From TrEMBL:
PANTHER family: CATIONIC AMINO ACID TRANSPORTER, MEMBRANE COMPONENT. PROSITE patterns: ABC_TM1 (PS50928). This is ABC transporter permease. Its main location: membrane. Pfam families: BPD_transp_1 (PF00528). One of its GO terms (molecular function) is transmembrane transporter activity. The keyword Glycoprotein does not apply. The chain crosses the membrane at residues 20-45, 72-92, 98-117. GO terms for cellular component: ATP-binding cassette (ABC) transporter complex. It is found in: Cell inner membrane; Cell membrane. It is a multi-pass membrane protein. It comes from Brucella intermedia 229E.
């Protein structure tokens, strides 16, 4: 049996299993990346224009989550999520252990981890927009939302794309690691 026979989709090959693992890994990465982007937009807004409390919470979130190893985050969500779901189930009258879905734990862990990185990417991209362009939009009479939609968002997205590519690579790497942990 050769190397290509092992990778085949036949009865002796592992091709189907490898393809399904790759699909699950990409699905985890995409969903986690999108969840992280949503978290990152809100946290970046809190760091830029929020009050002191919101800024402190967002700073704490990014500092703590970026300092925790990704494997610890998945273990916290998988095992801690199972314990939390079991406790909630007991409160409502369920008996025994109630499991937490591994896929959901992976999406949440990747989303929380990537959200901290997204926060810094979006914050840095917003800070990279020149003040003169924002002042020119204000001088033209644009409102806050129109100014954001026509001036700030396109320019910030241009600055954010390289960083978002890096975050995507990290989320894809994490998803492959999490698929291995979820399956075993």
């Amino acid at each position: 049996m050769g190397f290509l026979d092992i990778l085949s989709f036949g009865p002796d090959g592992w091709g189907y299993v490898l393809m399904m693992g790759a699909l699950v890994s990409v699905a985890l990465a995409v969903l986690g990346f999108l969840l992280g982007a949503a978290i990152g937009v809100f946290a970046a807004w809190a760091k830029i224009s929020g009050g002191r409390t919101l800024r402190t919470v967002a700073d704490g979130y990014t500092t703590i989550i970026r300092g925790i190893p990704d494997l610890l985050v998945i273990y916290l969500f998988y095992f801690g999520g199972s314990a939390a779901v079991t406790a909630i189930g007991k409160y409502f009258g369920a008996e025994g252990f109630v499991g937490f879905p591994g896929f959901l734990a992976g999406v949440l862990a990747i989303g929380i981890s990537c959200g901290a990185h997204h926060t810094e990417v979006f914050r840095g991209a917003y800070r990279a927009v020149f003040k003169g362009e924002i002042e020119a939009a204000t001088a033209c009479g644009m409102g806050r939302m129109l100014k954001f939609r026509r001036i700030i968002a396109p320019l910030a997205l241009r600055h954010a794309l390289p960083g978002l590519g890096n975050v995507w690579q990290v989320s894809l790497k994490e998803s492959a690691r999490k698929v291995r942990r979820i399956r075993s």
